[in-house]
Amino acid sequence: MNAQNGKVALVTGASRGIGAAIAQRLAHDGFAIIVNYAGNHAAAETVVNAIQAKGGQALAVQGDVAATAAVRALFDAAEARFGGVDVLVNNAGIFKPAPIASSDDALFDSHIAINIKGSFNTMREAANRLRHGGRVINFSTSVVGLKLENYAIYAATKAAVETMGAIMAKEMRGRGITVNAVAPGPTATDLFLDGKSPELIDRLAKLSPMERLATPDDIAAVVAFLAGPDGAWINGQVLRANGGMV
C-alpha cells in the first residue's frame, strides 16, 4: 500500500466485481476511497475492511446513483470525511440482455435510469465539485463495438455515456480535468458468470485473441492508469479493454 497521496476517489457500484477491484487498486495507489453501494452494505464493508487492513482509507456510503439527492449526498460524504473528490469512477450499472422484440418497458426504463441518468447525475455533480486536476472515468462496454444480439438496450445506454463523457471533456476546459471511458469486454465477475454454461463462457473467452476472459484486476489496472499521473494526457477517449476482440 502506497503512502496516501492526498487524493480522493469516489467509486460507484464498488461493493463487488469490477467496482470492488477498482476501489482496492486505487487505495493501493494511495487514494482515499468512497465505496458506494446500492443495497449490499455487508459487501461494501468487506471492501472497506480489506482496504483498511492494508493501511488505506475508505468509507462505505449507500446511494442509488439514479437519484439526484443520493448522488449529492455521496459527494457531501466525501467532502465531510476526506475534504473533497478528485476522481469519479462511474462503475455502477446494470445489464440484462434481451432481444428488442421481448424487452418490456420496465427493462428499458431501468437501464435508462441507472446507466444513463445515474452516470449523468454523478458527472453533473463532478462537473460542479471535482477539484482542479481531477479525473472522471466512465464505464462503457465493448458491446458498443461488437453489437451482439440481445444487448441493444444496454449498448445504447453505454453509447450515450461515451458521448456525454466526450462532451464533458471539452466543457472542463481550463480546469485540468480529464474525462474518459473504459469499455471492457467479457470479464470474469460473479455477475457475468452466473447462469452461463461452460461452453458459452469458453466461446466468449475465445472472442479475444488473448483467448481468455478479463479479470476484474485487468480492468482496475486501466482505471488506475487513467486516474494516475501517467494518464494525464488521455482525455475525451474510450479505452476498449477487451484483449483485442474489437
Topology:
Layout: E1 8-11, H1 17-28, E2 32-37, H2 41-53, E3 58-62, H3 68-82, E4 87-90, H4 105-129, E5 135-139, H5 143-146, H6 152-171, E6 178-182, H7 190-193, H8 198-205, H9 216-227, E7 238-239
Parallel strand pairs: 1-2, 1-4, 2-3, 4-5, 5-6, 6-7
Helix pairs in contact: 1-2, 1-9, 3-4, 4-6
Keywords:
single chain; 246 residues; alpha/beta; Rossmann fold; seven-stranded parallel beta sheet; 9 helices; 7 strands
In the CATH scheme, the class would be: Alpha Beta
Helicity, in percent? 40-55%
Radius of gyration: 17 Å
- Secondary-structure arrangement, i.e. CATH architecture: 3-Layer(aba) Sandwich
Query: Could you name the ranges where pLDDT drops below 50 across 5 or more consecutive residues?
Result: none
Strand content: 5-15%
CATH fold-type name: Rossmann fold
Give me the CATH superfamily: NAD(P)-binding Rossmann-like Domain
Question: Please, how many helices?
Answer: 9
What report would you give on this structure?
There is one protein chain. The protein is α/β, with parallel strands linked by helices and 246 residues long. It has one domain (8-239): Rossmann fold (3-Layer(aba) Sandwich). 46% of the residues lie in helices and 13% in strands. A 7-stranded parallel β-sheet has the order 3-2-1-4-5-6-7, sandwiched between helices. Strand 4 (87-90), helix 4 (105-129) and strand 5 (135-139) form a beta-alpha-beta unit. Helix 1 runs parallel beside helix 2 (41-53). The radius of gyration is 17 Å and the shape is globular.
